[in-house]
């Protein structure tokens, strides 16, 4: 009887040890993600954020094509980080202002079409995830939802680079379902 009890205690201890290690890994991952966000908040805006804010300003009636193409030139000549710029655009896409969202989508499209580096960052910085959230949000203006859908569809048809991503596959299936 005591051997049976010892086996149960030992098995329970082993489950606790495995569970504790898993909790530790999850906590470390969560803290790492959180520390990145805190660092981002404390650092304030960088050059890329400033460029994105200017190109997607609430006061603009239409996209400033000259500014958008200047930003592309800066990316292509490595005067600004494509990673930071795409992160800045991503931040603007999730804002509540319909105008800012639209201008951010237009800047994203311009950068993706004109900057190979920026296009590869779209997948790496999980911009598609934010675009899907924008599409799914019932508060999103129809024009912005359609623009996001058209971008995702066009990118998927133009390159194999995004097709391997699960978020693209899921989004593309939703597009097909919605259009039926």
Automatic annotation (TrEMBL):
Gene Ontology cellular-component annotations: membrane
Natural source organism: Salix viminalis
Family: Belongs to the TOM1 family.
Residues in VHS domain copies: 55-180
Domain of life: Eukaryota
Locations listed in the record: Membrane
Family matches, as InterPro entries: ENTH_VHS (IPR008942), TOL_plant (IPR044836), VHS_dom (IPR002014)
GO biological process, one term: protein transport to vacuole involved in ubiquitin-dependent protein catabolic process via the multivesicular body sorting pathway
A molecular function GO annotation: phosphatidylinositol binding
Keyword tags: Membrane, Phosphoprotein, Protein transport, Transport
The keyword Membrane appears for this protein: yes
UniProt cross-references to PROSITE patterns, sorted A to Z: VHS
Keyword presence, Protein transport: yes
Membrane-protein topology: Peripheral membrane protein
Descriptive protein name: VHS domain-containing protein
Leader sequence segment: none
């Amino acid at each position: 009887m005591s051997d049976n009890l010892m086996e149960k205690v030992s098995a329970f201890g082993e489950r606790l040890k495995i569970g504790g290690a898993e909790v530790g890994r999850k906590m470390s991952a969560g803290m790492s993600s959180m520390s990145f966000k805190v660092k981002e908040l404390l650092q304030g805006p960088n050059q890329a954020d400033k460029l994105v804010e200017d190109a997607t300003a609430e006061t603009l009636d239409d996209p400033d094509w000259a500014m958008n193409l200047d930003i592309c030139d800066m990316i292509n000549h490595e005067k600004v980080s494509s990673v930071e710029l795409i992160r800045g655009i991503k931040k603007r896409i999730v804002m509540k202002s319909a105008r800012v969202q639209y201008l951010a989508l237009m800047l994203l499209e311009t950068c993706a079409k004109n900057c190979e580096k920026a296009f590869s960052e779209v997948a790496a910085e999980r911009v598609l995830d934010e675009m899907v959230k924008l599409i799914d949000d019932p508060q999103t203006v129809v024009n912005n939802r359609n623009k996001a859908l058209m971008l995702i569809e066009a990118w998927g048809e133009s390159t194999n680079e995004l097709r391997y991503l699960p978020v693209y596959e899921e989004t593309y299936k939703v597009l097909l379902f919605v259009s039926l």
